[in-house]
Amino acid sequence: MAQDREARYIRMTTEPVTKLIPSLAVPTIISMLVTSFYNMADTFFVSKLETSATAAVGVVFSLMAVIQTIGFTLGVGSGAYISRLLGRREEERADQAASTAFFTAIAFGVVLAVFGLLFLEPFMRLLGATETSLSHACDYARYILLGAPLMTASFVMNNNLRSEGSALLAMAGIGAGAVINIALDPLFIFTFNMGTGGAALATVISQTVSFFILLSHFLSGRSGIRLSIRRVRLQMEMFREILRSGFPTFCRQGLASTASIFLNKAAHPFGDAALAAMSITSRVMMFVSSALIGFGQGFQPVAGFNYSAGKKERVHDAYWFCVRVGTVALAVLGGLVVAFAPGIVALFQGEDAAVVSLGAAALRAQAIVLPLQAFVIMSNMMLQSIGQSLSATILALARQGLFFIPLIVILPGLILEPGLVLSQPLSDILTFAISIPVTLGIRRELRQAKRAPAAEKLPNG
């Protein structure tokens, strides 16, 4: 165990970042793409039922965002903290942080499941369900809530594996669950005639498989981190460190959930076609941007490790490497979405011309500004990983909170459906603008650290 941890430390602090980050990011990118793909698979298969069923998936997407908020807040928070602890070689404290986050996530998942099931119908109405989509939404959400405790804990384990540099182990759990979900969707929806509830049951079964695969990595010793209820520390200092690192994610994911509810509410007056179109758009754009998020999650442990180890010049190189690669990749992906937007939407709801028209317009508007997200997301992830929680929180609040929610409340009332289309891209532009001054201080610090080694090599006098 000690030798494995020493080998991980040496690798994270000495291997060239242009080699290290892709090796960590590729498994994570695959995990993110596969996860997004099977989220889209739910939408794809459910869309074959009727437009109101597709609208219901968009409504329950808000619930999924709540579950992800809990899991990612504790997972990313503990993961960033663990990276810094491992960079300082405090292995026992890292085990305690992972165990505390894991069991806390399960507890929150149980609470969400109990209250969600007790108040299921009003909960779905709160999330934006129409009268025609309500029954579909309840069928879907019932199973998702039952699986909430395992889903939240899986997000924690997945992030903690990546935080120690074990991205391949994280990919194995997520990938296996995704394949199972895609296989079970048509079986439960159509063969067993379970409708939208079948899609949700397939998701819960796949998430359960992922949970036990991920847990096996910790219990078998394949991970350098040890999970045990005996290592849980119900200490204010522990929770403060986890939540301080995870708070930007809480803001980002929590606001994504809130923004999804506001989007559903804004689309509600325009009927199930608008709800379905925006649901499809959200899933497709999540799939496209998931590659960048996966790349950034490969960067995060590198940033946390090296910043804590005093190797800030490596953080500088890693950050700008990721920004350059991310911008180019998103430009290419955005161009493809612009070119094929109507066909993409038609794959889900081709028989409904209103859904195709509105969905294609929304896809194109968001794809045009997609490359701007590379700088924003990488900046946010870097700030979060190195413990700059205030700046990270400001960026996390910006996209969905400071800009999107006000825009989606105001614009549809002023310009009708074009307001649904333009709110997100306008928010992305404004977020990029604010990210430049927010990151100025840390970019200057890293640039000076990059120049310092070269200056030290100059002859005296």
TrEMBL record:
**Which GO terms of the cellular component aspect does the record hold?**
plasma membrane
Q: Which GO terms describe its molecular function?
A: antiporter activity; xenobiotic transmembrane transporter activity
Sorted keywords for this record are: Antibiotic resistance, Cell membrane, Membrane, Transmembrane, Transmembrane helix, Transport
Write down the Pfam families for this protein, in alphabetical order.
MatE
Q: What are the recorded Gene Ontology BP terms?
A: response to antibiotic
Membrane-spanning residues where?
Answer: 20-41, 53-76, 97-120, 140-157, 169-192, 198-221, 318-348, 354-378, 390-415, 421-442
Q: Does the keyword Protein biosynthesis apply?
A: no
Membrane topology term reads: Multi-pass membrane protein
Q: List where in the cell it is found.
A: Cell membrane
Keyword match Cytoplasm: no
PANTHER family named among the record's database cross-references: MULTIDRUG EXPORT PROTEIN MEPA (PTHR43823:SF3), SPORULATION PROTEIN YKVU (PTHR43823)
Q: Which family does it belong to?
A: Belongs to the multi antimicrobial extrusion (MATE) (TC 2.A.66.1) family. MepA subfamily.
Protein name as catalogued? Multidrug export protein MepA
Q: Which organism is it from?
A: Feifania hominis
Taxonomic classification, please? Bacteria, Bacillati, Bacillota, Clostridia, Eubacteriales
